[in-house]
Design brief:
The structure holds two protein chains of two kinds. By secondary structure, chain A is α/β, with parallel strands linked by helices. Chain A has two domains: 310 residues, Up-down Bundle (ABC transporter transmembrane region fold); 240 residues, 3-Layer(aba) Sandwich (Rossmann fold). Helices cover 64% and strands 10% of the residues of chain A. Chain A contains 21 helices and twelve strands. In chain A, 49% of the residues are buried. By secondary structure, chain B is α/β, with parallel strands linked by helices. In chain B, the strands form four sheets. A six-stranded mixed sheet of chain B has the order 10-13-14-7-15-16, sandwiched between helices. A four-stranded antiparallel sheet of chain B has the order 2-1-3-4. In chain B, helix 1 runs antiparallel to helix 8. Chain B starts with 27 loop residues before the first helix and ends in a 6-residue tail after the last helix. Classes of the chains: A alpha/beta, B alpha/beta. At the A-B interface, helix 2, helix 3, helix 5, helix 7 and helix 8 of A face helix 1, helix 2, helix 4, helix 5 and helix 6 of B.
Chain lengths: 583, 643
């Protein structure tokens, strides 16, 4: 894991190296300062030597300046290294995600990827800065202050050593205990927030069933549990302060006693004593700092792990060597194709599919939920790879094509489709970057989108909100079709892409397809019989197999499933207000 | 889409960047006092105790600092050179200091211990108060606020308040007392040196102010960039499959790198300035020390104003312990400002006006005795409205039948814009009324009015002859079942989710309801049957299954009047049939208002209302409306634009 993350430091290696260096320099200067302060008191103030005071004072200012420089540089490089590290992490993850196949994306889920790119990266950024600035500084400061103490007086320094061991041990126990309770607390707290979130979005249901008091009680129980755990965890943490104070005070008293004896017997100066007391604080503070760093690192481990998962994920579909750069025509062939989403699952999603589609044909696909209609078409543009058998487009196995070439020629309008924030034109040009406005308009006319775009306040320059929030479902679908048409593909696949479009418009779109792009092979998945009725051939899918194939009339006569669906739909189960999207 | 009927603001899922949202706190003092008062309501004694403990432990600490000087001046120095030093005096002094230390430690512990209960207790109370109050708010609140923002009250804002109560305020108090006591000690020792120290503090404050201003500027920039990057990430991750299909990977990387670089630039600068604050202040502190040593040395040697060498040594110690709390104060001030903004948002929620209910007509179990309807305790299957006339105190019982009348109703979500105009409608008990019309015609709005999610501006709605404003909201809603288009399920077992409709339902009743709704079949196939825990709003169920659960929930409540919003999402024909059957069984014998999307539903209705732009433009049975060849005919034949 460290190796994977370490690789992302890249151009910030220098910063990452310099930060602790400057921190060490700062620590050294900080250790020198008490020595000089001691000397100012001992040899200057006590002896009434003004020259010494000024000399030492100047020395101290010099050291302070060096320390200031080191501090600023350390701060600067630390900031650069950690924010740069975060930048690289985001970039590396983002780049890797772009290589992901659909299978990879499914594995992580959208929300999972967003968290990793945002919250988790921020956590690591903070932890990294902490490590660079504190992880080396704190132990170093501890050691150097300890060494200095030993140089001044081994007897007193040994008191520190004992204090460090005792306090260190106690802190370790506190951290361990507290972490245990805190992780429980966070879990409970997350659950509390999740249920609050649920309640907010379900406010209508709660009110409709008059369950306000019930929900309040539920919440109060949960918040009571959070309270109890919180108290338990905090009770341990608050031991920190008094424990620290106790150790410091004990040290001061002990040193004063031992120090007084030593001064009297002339083995220690008063200046030395002041310096020693300053080191005492340095040492114990460093220890405290270390325990904090430790907690922080432990807490960011989960984030580090999640990020590594993305970085280490290998794309399941890659470009072949010497790829074919041209698709000859829109013919499609499935030869003994079997497909599983998960290699280990028993029953395949598609089972031994054989299919021949000629270029320019219009094929309808129908079947119940889970009958693998979408899986079938997803293999054509190689969004997934077949587990067994082969899929051929234009007479060649899809695995031989350059991915971009293939996907530009096999244009899919996904079931769960998305528009992006930007103007209508910008969205359309996803299909073809260089498309002129006329070409865009042409595609929109084919998809029956031109009409409503013209009615929009700024026509083709109207801004589409994120996720297409400001267009209706039917309009969105038509825009997505137009976008796919702009690729001028050999094969066009519509995966339930007109479900929100009224029947009349739906018919118009199909009509336009037949007239304007006769050579393009068209695959249309639909729930409505009316959407596919006129296709050259219709495939009826059932449980991963082709149940029947033929024209509308043939299937009506010979296919039970098809007939059942047809009868159900003509019998009144069809959507009534299909026309609602018309305007 | 029901969502478009409601006045929801803001793009979907687009969260504004944290820290930028919300109004600026205009009256920080008022907000601050309000927070303090809120805490003090239950913890006044504890707060005083904490304050006392802070004072004592600070004084003990200051006393300790002074002790070192006394130790050197009064006990050690006199003994230097003495051949037979007497340590008993020192021992005494140390014993005294040890007692102070012990008190200090004890106080510090008591302080943290007490504070812990104050903080955790207040947080719990605040959460409970917020939630309880939120539950009582009208639907309008949820419709007009972005859910993410409401949520962030419970997470971010409450967290800043916790920070303030548990850390910032005690720290500030601690620092303030330290500053005052050290300052007093310094003034007693030497005034010119105190002035010098204060001057240096001034310099320090100016410097940190400058740095903070810079850092603040970049932090704001960083915040804005974080918002942009996160927004882009969210959008692109959601559309990642589309990106793949359109081979848009390189372009999306290019755009991302640009935003990422901008974020890095501002984050780097913001962090840089934040990082250099500490060393700058620390070194200015050292400078202050040196200056005091030099000036003080000169003063002591010249013996100006009786200033002694011992005094200088003490002063220098104070100088050192003066700078630290100053830095602390400036740091804590920052987080208090943030907490005040969070506090304001939290109190804004608590100040929101709760749903008012002036209704007094209640729903009671009833039975018939001769001609009269009387109230009873046992289950009779019969319900009645108990109408206590306010004028003369008499009580009327009206049988609950499910008759609903709209009389010239006008309604708008805001007073400026009406969405329903002069709506009249009449539903006899047991009738099925279907609403059809294009998106935004006001179908969902009408159903929002029957259960009083919103109150009408003009006209009357009567339920069994009673103006619904007179019926207690809880009782009104109990008498209405509602199946929404988007199903909401809770993190709980399937059993509990259905039982939500009737809390005291037995397992058998739940199963019976599930059977009625055609949900029993799929529930039994779930890993743990009825005990399967659903999570993430039933994410592991299909759309159709979720709807079936929602129907079962309504079925168990067994209400006389139903409001159904049929789903538009395309589920396959078979599942759709199962859902449809479930709905049909549920509708049997109940007055039903249905926002219809399905032809069979419309056909079987007793009356169809065709809505357009908030008006009922046609009404009648299917056959009747077809004959009229109006809007309904157009909708039915799907030829609205072809002609």
């Amino acid at each position: 894991m460290l190796k994977t993350l370490g690789k992302q430091i890249k151009e910030f290696k220098k910063d990452s190296f310099l930060t602790p260096c400057f921190m060490i320099l700062e620590v050294i200067m900080e250790t020198l300062i008490p020595v000089l302060m001691g000397s100012i008191i001992d040899n200057g103030v006590e002896k009434g030597d003004m020259r010494h005071i000024i000399l030492m004072g100047l020395g101290m200012i010099g050291i302070a300046l060096v320390s200031l420089y080191a501090g600023i540089m350390g701060g600067k490089y630390g900031a650069r290294a950690s924010t740069g590290f975060a930048k690289n992490l985001r970039e590396a993850m983002y780049n890797n995600i772009q290589t992901f196949s659909f299978a990879n994306i499914d594995k992580f889920s959208t929300a999972g990827l967003v968290t990793r790119l945002t919250t988790d990266v921020t956590n690591l950024q903070n932890a990294y800065q902490m490590i660079l600035r504190m992880c080396i500084r704190a132990p170093f400061s501890l050691i150097i202050a300890m060494t200095a103490s030993f140089l001044i007086s081994a007897r007193i320094a040994s008191i520190y050593l004992i204090a460090v061991i005792i306090l260190g041990g106690a802190l370790a126990i506190i951290v361990r205990l507290a972490m245990k309770y805190f992780s429980q607390l966070f879990e409970k707290y997350d659950a509390l927030n999740a249920s609050t979130q649920e309640n907010i979005s379900a406010s209508r249901v709660v009110k409709a069933y008059v369950r306000e008091d019930y929900e309040i009680n539920k919440f109060k129980n949960a918040s009571g549990a959070v309270y109890k755990l919180g108290v338990r965890a905090e009770k341990i943490v608050i031991m920190n302060g008094p424990l620290m104070m106790f150790t410091v005070y004990c040290c001061i008293l002990l040193i004063s006693w031992v120090g007084a004896h030593m001064i009297v017997s002339d083995t220690l100066t008063t200046g030395n004593l002041t310096a020693l007391l300053a080191y005492c604080m340095n040492i114990l503070m460093s220890l405290m700092m270390l325990s904090m760093v430790f907690v922080m690192i432990t807490m960011s481990m989960a984030s580090a792990k999640r990020i590594c998962e993305v970085l280490e994920e290998k794309a399941t579909i890659c470009n072949p060597e010497n790829p074919v750069m041209e698709v000859k025509d829109g013919s499609i062939r499935f030869s003994h194709v079997t497909f599983r989403y998960n290699e280990n699952s028993e029953s395949p999603v598609l089972d031994d599919i054989n299919l021949d589609i000629k270029a320019g044909e219009t094929i309808g696909i129908i079947g119940g939920t889970g009958s693998s209609k979408t899986s079938l078409v997803n293999l054509i543009s190689r969004l997934y790879d077949a587990s067994q058998g082969s899929v051929l487009v234009g007479g060649r196995d899809v695995k031989e094509y350059d991915l971009e070439t293939l996907r530009n020629q096999v244009s899919v309008v996904l079931q769960k489709n998305v528009l992006f924030s930007g103007t209508v034109l910008e969205n359309l040009r996803w299909g073809d970057e260089n498309a002129t406005e006329e070409e865009c308009k042409r595609a929109c006319e084919l998809a029956c989108a031109d009409e409503f775009i013209q009615k929009m306040p700024e026509g083709y320059n109207t801004y589409i909100e994120q996720g297409g929030a400001n267009v209706s479902g039917g309009q969105k679908q038509r825009l997505c079709i137009a976008r796919a048409l702009l690729k001028k593909p050999c094969v066009l696949i519509l995966d339930d892409s007109t479900s929100a479009v009224d029947t009349a418009t739906d018919a118009k779109i199909r009509h336009a397809f037949a007239k304007e792009i006769p050579n393009t092979t068209k695959l249309i998945i639909a729930q409505r019989i009316s959407s596919i009725q006129g296709a050259d051939r219709i495939i009826v899918m059932n449980e991963g197999k082709i149940d029947g194939i033929g024209t509308h009339e043939e299937l009506l006569a010979g296919n039970a499933i098809y007939r059942e669906v047809y009868e159900a739909q003509t019998d009144g189960a069809r959507d009534f207000d299909e026309g609602k999207e018309a305007n | 889409m029901a969502a478009q009927d409601r006045p929801v603001k803001g793009p979907m899922g687009g969260r504004p960047p944290r820290g930028v949202r919300g109004p600026k706190v205009e009256n920080p003092k008022k907000e601050f006092l309000r927070i303090i008062r809120y805490v003090a309501k239950y913890y006044a004694v504890q707060m005083v105790l904490v304050a006392i403990c802070i004072v004592v432990s600070v004084l003990a600490n200051v006393q300790g600092t002074m002790f070192i000087q006394t130790l050197i001046d009064q006990y050690i120095k006199p003994m230097i050179g003495s051949s037979n030093p007497d340590f008993s005096g020192l021992l005494h002094a140390m014993a005294r200091v040890a007692v102070f230390y012990a008190i200090g430690i004890a106080c510090s512990y008591i302080q943290s211990f007490t504070l812990l209960f104050v903080t955790q207790g207040t947080m719990r109370r605040l959460r409970d108060d917020m939630y309880s109050h939120m539950e009582k708010l009208p639907i309008k609140y949820f419709d007009t606020h972005i859910h993410g923002d409401i949520m962030s009250l419970y997470t971010n804002d409450i967290d800043t308040l916790r920070q303030m109560i548990s850390q910032s305020i005690p720290q500030m108090l601690n620092s303030a007392i330290t500053i005052v006591s050290v300052l007093v000690s310094m003034i007693i020792l030497n005034i010119p040196l105190t002035v010098l120290t204060l001057a240096m503090v001034g310099v320090m404050m100016i410097c940190s102010g400058k740095i903070a201003a810079n850092s603040g500027k970049y932090f704001k920039e960083q915040q804005a960039n974080i918002g942009k990057v996160n927004g882009y990430i969210e959008e692109m991750m959601t559309g990642q499959k589309v990106v793949k299909v359109f081979c848009h990977e390189d372009k999306s990387i290019e755009e991302f790198n640009k935003l990422n670089q901008e974020l890095f630039d501002s984050a780097y600068k913001a962090n840089k300035f934040a990082n250099i604050m500490m060393p700058v202040n620390a070194q200015l502190g050292n400078l202050s020390y040196v200056l005091c040593a030099c000036v003080g040395g000169a003063l002591a040697l010249g013996n100006v104003g009786g200033f002694t060498v011992g005094g200088l040594a003490s002063f220098l110690t104070f100088n050192k312990s003066f700078n630290m709390p100053i830095n602390q104060v400036s740091m804590q001030l920052n987080s208090i400002v943030m907490a005040l903004a969070g506090g304001k948002r939290v109190f804004d929620l608590l100040d929101e006006k709760a749903e008012v209910d002036e209704g007094y007509v209640t729903l009671v179990r009833a039975k018939r005795e001769g001609d009269k309807i009387v109230e009873c305790q046992e289950r009779t299957g019969m319900w009645a409205w108990k109408h206590e006339h306010q004028a003369d105190g008499t009580v009327d019982y009206v049988e609950l039948k499910g008759e609903v009348v709209f009389d010239d109703v006008d309604f708008g979500y805001t007073d400026e814009k009406m969405v329903l105009h002069n709506v009249d409608l009449y539903a006899h008990p047991g009738e099925k009324i279907a609403f059809v019309g294009s998106t935004g015609a006001g179908k969902t709005t009408i159903t929002n009015l029957i259960n009083r999610f919103y109150d009408i501006q003009d006209g009357k709605i009567r339920y069994d002859g009673i103006n619904i404003n007179k019926i207690k909201k809880a009782d009104l809603r109990h008498s209405l079942g509602i199946v929404l288009q988007d199903t909401h399920l809770f993190t709980a077992t399937v059993m509990e989710n259905i039982r939500f409709g009737k809390l005291d339902a037995t397992d058998e009743e739940v199963i019976a309801a599930a059977k009625l709704a055609n949900a029993d079949g799929f529930i039994r196939q779930l890993p743990d049957g009825y005990q399967t825990v659903l999570s993430g709003d039933g994410a592991n169920l299909s759309q159709g299954q979720r709807q079936l659960l929602s129907i079962a929930r309504a079925a168990i409540a067994d209400p006389p009047v139903l409001i159904l919003d049929e789903a538009t999402s395309s589920i396959d024909t078979r599942t759709e049939k199962i859902v449809q059957d479930g709905m049909d069984k549920l509708m049997k014998g109940r007055t039903t208002f249905v926002i219809a999307h399905r032809l069979s539903t419309v056909k079987n209705s007793d009356c169809i209302m065709v809505l357009e732009q908030g008006r009922i433009i046609e009404r009648g049975t299917h056959e009747h409306l077809l004959e009229e060849k109006g809007k309904y005919y157009q909708l039915y034949t799907g030829n609205s634009i072809a002609q």
